[in-house]
Specification:
The complex is a heterodimer of chains A (194) and B (445). By secondary structure, chain A is an alpha+beta fold. Helix content of chain A is 24%, strand content 22%. Chain A contains 4 helices and 9 strands. In chain A, strands 1-9-8 form a 3-stranded antiparallel β-sheet, with no helix packed on it. Chain A has a 3-stranded antiparallel β-sheet with strand order 2-3-4, with no helix packed on it. In chain A, a hairpin with a 2-residue loop joins strand 8 and strand 9. The two termini of chain A are 53 Å apart. In chain B, helix 5 runs antiparallel to helix 6 and helix 14 packs antiparallel against helix 15. The longest helix of chain B has 30 residues. The chains are: A alpha+beta (194), B mainly alpha (445). At the A-B interface, loops of A face helix 7 and helix 8 of B.
């Protein structure tokens, strides 16, 4: 920046500043500085305009949900909501666990075992989002008497995705298994999702 | 702008002169849609759809503004304020049906306008900018229509919003944060509804702005015409007013007849019954489809069912859908044939008709459930759509021998009307004398 300093502190009398020093004039410096300052200010002013579109505090406050699972008998499941989307809590029967374990994991589109999709030692509790990974429909199978699909888990009526008893994709267009949200058991009969 | 022989604005009323001297707005209007805009004399009815699109835009803005006076953009009440508009507001049913069907009619005339341009080569030099701005308007219209459809907060509104914003979730890494940011939550909710309302109110006025640019760009070279031959002199043009104001007025009459028929006799024909059920995040309608005007694009979206080179099928579908529209921005440089009008391009004409059928097939598949044979048909049709623009059009431009073009617009017009212009009838043409026959008796004198 030596040239600049010279041009700034050097000869001032010329109206447009000195023409030498590699052609950098005092006015060039002021121009670039002013435009950069205003430009950076303009960009910073955009930040709150963009940020206001992020989820608000009340939406985020619902980002974790506590669910009482004491009343769910084996073979039953409930539908609740987590982050305003459906959440399936399913109490698997021994038969359903056996069916899920009998599958060769390598043959799956999205290879995962039932252990990997449940909490240690609580293999009978299958907790997933009720959002089909294809285009976001709510699959059937969590309600009483609903179609559970060819593999006894969930069935999405929109485009015919079949999920098994570990909620893994087995047939149809969905690319991945039903998402397992982050959750933990707070007591033996209640879970905290999120 | 325009041609040197364009008539100059000479106000007769003193008040118009007073205004024109201080703000030349009357002059601006006169030169845009009045006697001061010389237009080729041979435009056919396909040239009506520009004005009709403008008319549809005005209908949407007017009905939309008054409906907003009765609407509540809150997820708890939105559905019920729309029902309130339908049941209790004076004439509210008419306003809403006009607005909902008006959107469909807007797309009908826009699609005819676009296909007019595709056939007559309106996108070619020197009118590329007119075409590009038109595509910008089309994109803005699609965004506006989508957000408007969400506002009644019915089942189709909700699940449409979920599926469409879910498309952004297909983008790797940043997709889900973008989706959450767009929605202001993890699923469509009050935040999404409010911002959609805000933008749905704003975008039509942005469209008005781009329409002004579109017309401005058009008036520099002037309108194209069915022969594609440029205007050569004053004998080739007639003033916009009264000739084309009259012709467009007639077209507007037909438009209103069709529009009123839909609004009064089949207002829900193009809608979905599921949208009269309030949005329920826990239950998906059995068959989610967008409105008919998105079907061709929806078919392209769903045509991808297998992953390619580690790119997931869902992402491919999203990219293809956006590409199908962005592709049109390159059209002026893909079709290198110097002949504009399809009338003089025999090979092009055949493939144009195939493209038209292809888009109709895509539209049909987009509205059908995602099962065979529709998935396979949409895959073939989507592939053909891209092939038409990227392979076939450039090849035709190289291979085709166009028919001889008329020397001028006037020459083409006179050749077409030889015999019915009062000139002596040629030998091989039967003389037409009002004698009548058995099917059309001679009228009483």
């Amino acid at each position: 920046m030596a040239t600049l300093e010279e041009s700034v502190t050097g000869h001032l009398p010329d109206e447009n500043g000195p023409q030498d020093n590699g052609g950098v004039r005092r006015r060039d410096f002021i121009n670039i500085a002013a435009v950069s300052f205003a430009g950076a200010g303009g960009v910073v002013a955009l930040l709150p305009l963009i940020n206001q579109m992020n989820p608000s505090a009340d939406v985020l406050a619902l980002a974790s949900t506590e669910v009482d699972i004491s009343a769910i008998e084996p073979g039953q499941s409930i539908k609740t909501t987590f982050r305003s989307q459906p959440l399936f809590v399913r109490h698997l029967t021994a038969d359903e666990i056996a069916k899920a374990d009998a599958v060769d994991v390598k043959s799956l589109r999205d290879p995962q075992t039932l252990e990997e999709r449940t909490v240690d030692g609580r293999k009978e509790w299958l907790i997933t989002m009720g959002v089909c990974t294809h285009l976001g429909c709510v699959p059937l199978g969590a309600g009483e008497g609903e179609n559970k699909g060819e593999f006894g888990g969930y069935f999405c009526p929109c485009h015919g995705s079949h999920y098994d008893t570990a909620a893994r994709i087995r047939k149809g267009p969905a690319p991945t298994n039903l998402v397992v949200p982050p959750y933990s058991f707070t007591t033996d009969t209640s879970i905290l999702v999120g | 702008m325009s041609f040197p022989w364009a008539k100059e604005y000479t106000p007769k009323a003193p008040v118009m002169k007073w205004i024109d001297d201080r703000l030349p707005l009357p002059r601006f209007v006169y030169n845009a849609v009045g006697g001061g805009y010389p237009v080729p004399r041979n435009l056919n009815f396909f040239w009506n759809f520009g004005i009709l699109s403008g008319l549809a835009l005005v209908i949407q803005i007017v009905t939309g503004i008054v409906m907003a006076m009765h609407y509540g953009a809150n997820d708890l009440v939105a559905f019920w304020t729309v029902e309130h508009t339908m049941r209790d507001v004076n004439g509210g049913w008419l306003l809403r049906y006009a607005h909902a069907n008006g959107a469909s009619f807007f797309f009908i005339v826009i699609y005819l306008h676009i296909f007019r341009g595709l056939y007559y080569g309106s996108y070619k030099a020197p009118r590329e900018m007119v075409w590009l701005l038109g595509l910008v308007i089309f994109l803005l219209m699609m965004a506006t229509a989508f957000m408007g459809y969400v506002l009644p907060w019915g089942q189709m509104s909700y699940w449409g919003a979920k599926v469409i914003t879910g498309l952004f979730g297909a983008i790797p890494v940043v997709g889900e944060p973008i989706q959450t940011w767009l929605l202001g939550g993890f699923a469509p909710g009050n935040a999404a509804l409010n911002r959609f309302f805000s933008l749905h109110y704003l975008l039509p006025f942005v469209i008005v702005g781009v329409v002004i640019l579109h017309i401005w760009a058009l008036h520099i070279p002037g309108s194209s015409n069915p022969t594609g031959v440029e205007v050569k002199g004053p004998q080739d043009t007639i003033p916009f007013h009264p000739y084309y104001t009259a012709k467009d007025g007639f077209g507007a009459g037909l438009f209103f007849i069709a529009f009123a028929t839909m609004v009064y006799f089949a207002p829900n024909f193009l809608g979905h019954p599921d949208n009269y059920i309030e949005a329920n995040p826990l239950s998906t309608p059995a068959h989610i489809v967008p409105e008919w005007y998105f079907w061709p694009f929806y078919a392209i979206l769903r045509a991808f069912t297998v992953d390619f080179f580690f790119v997931p099928a869902k992402l491919l579908g999203v990219l293809a859908m956006f590409a199908s529209i962005l592709l049109l921005f390159f059209l002026p440089w893909l079709d290198t044939s110097p002949v504009r009008s399809g009338n003089y391009r025999p090979l092009f004409k055949k493939f144009y008709i195939i493209l038209l059928i292809d888009v109709l097939v895509l539209g049909y598949c987009g509205g059908a459930p995602a099962e065979e044979p529709y998935v396979m048909i949409s895959q073939v049709a989507a592939a053909y759509y891209f092939a038409h623009f990227l392979i076939i059009l450039p090849l035709i431009a190289k291979m085709e021998t166009p028919l001889p073009l008329p020397g001028s617009i006037t020459e083409a017009v006179l050749a077409k009307h030889a015999g019915d212009d009062g000139l002596p009838v040629k030998d091989d043409e039967p003389a037409v004398i009002a004698t009548g026959d058995e099917t059309a008796p001679q009228p009483a004198a």
